[in-house]
Every structure is written in C-alpha cells, then in structure tokens.
Amino acid sequence: MSEAAGKTGTDDQATESSSRPNRSSEADNADEQIAELTSLLKIDEDEIIRAAGCLVYREVDGGRQVLVVHRPRYDDWDLPKGKREDGESDLDCAIRETREESGYGGEIESELSPDHYLVRGRDKVVRWWVMRCTDGEFESNTEVDEIKWLEPAEAQAMLSYGHARSLIDEWIEGGPASPETVDAD
C-alpha cells in the first residue's frame, strides 16, 4: 500500500502523496516557497492547514540519535509536529509542539524542506527545523504514548512516512534536498 493510500479519514493524515515546493532562486525562504506553491496550485492561502515540527537529535557516545514519536491515534511513528495556533509563527509552533508531544526542548540549528499534502481535500504545509536536544523528559500523553531515540538509519526504518525519512537524509547531508518538481495534478 502506498503512503498516501494508508492515510485517510483523519485530520492529520494525508489523502495524497507528499511533495516539496520547487526550491528556485526566487523562493529562498519557506514563506516564499509556500506562496509560490499556493500560486502554482491556485490554492487560497487562508485555506491551508499550517503545521510545523522538529527533527530532534542528541549526541550520545560520539554518535547522534534521532527522536521518533508514536502517535496512538494513527498508530504511526513520526517526528514531533502539530498544527499552528492563531497568531503563532511556524517556528514557535514547531518548538511548542515538540515540547508538548515529546517533553524535549533544545536549540534550533537550521530549517529543512517543508512538506505538502492533502488532508480531507485541504492543503497542508508542514515546516521542519533541526533541534539539538538540550533538556527534557518524556511523559506519555494523549498525543504520544511512546518515544524512541534511534540511530539515524534505525529511525528511518521505524518512521511511517517517506518525507520524515527524507528529512533525516537532508539533515545528514547538511542542507535542503535537491529540487523536486511540484506535481500540480
């Protein structure tokens, strides 16, 4: 079953495959990329579901581990993320949602490629940042009942969604993934 086929019927689950906006020289930052995407796909920006999250890592014994969270509502493994609240910036949303879901906080290091998919026929854009964990402790909650700290390859094997796996590759490679063409279909 494709990633999209397995994501139906709930608010945070996609109904079509993920895609990334084209990273052109005119769209150097994510807000401009989102504006470019909405224009290209003829989307009303007020109708977009905005969300954000973090690829959280820590250094252990000379290596790095990535935080993955289990969401019982969807029975999936993902990186911590959630919907933006009114008046909140995307970055503030990413930091808040990461803390709420995982109990961890830290230093923001860089931004990764945004994700775009449909949720019940509405466009959703998720912005992502790299966070080096500096504090926190997990407590099971209604959104996340389990976490794991895993080596990057183990995290990729555990994650339920392709875009989350590609974010780890992008982070390891030290920058945004190569440009992809947006499929307007």
Describe this structure in words.
The protein has four helices and seven strands, in the order H-E-E-E-E-H-E-E-E-H-H. The chain is globular, with a radius of gyration of 16 Å. Strand 2 and strand 3 (76-78) form a beta hairpin. Helix 3 packs antiparallel against helix 4 (162-173). Strands 1, 2, 3, 4, 5, 6 and 7 form a seven-stranded mixed beta sheet that branches. With 185 residues, the protein is an alpha+beta fold.
Kindly list the characteristics that best describe this protein.
185 residues, alpha+beta, seven-stranded mixed sheet, 34% strand, disordered C terminus
How far the N terminus sits from the C terminus, by CA atoms, comes to: 20 Å
Work out the number of β strands: 7
User: Per DSSP, what share of the residues sits in E-state strands of 2 or more residues?
Assistant: 25-35%
Shape: globular
Please give the structural blueprint.
Layout: H1 30-40, E1 49-60, E2 63-71, E3 76-78, E4 81-83, H2 90-102, E5 104-119, E6 122-136, E7 146-150, H3 152-158, H4 162-173
Parallel strand pairs: 1-6
Antiparallel strand pairs: 1-2, 1-4, 2-3, 2-7, 5-6
Question: What's the short story on this structure?
Answer:
The longest helix is centred in the middle third of the chain and has 13 residues, at 90-102. Strands 1, 2, 3, 4, 5, 6 and 7 form a seven-stranded mixed beta sheet that branches. With 185 residues, this protein is α+β, with helices and mostly antiparallel strands.
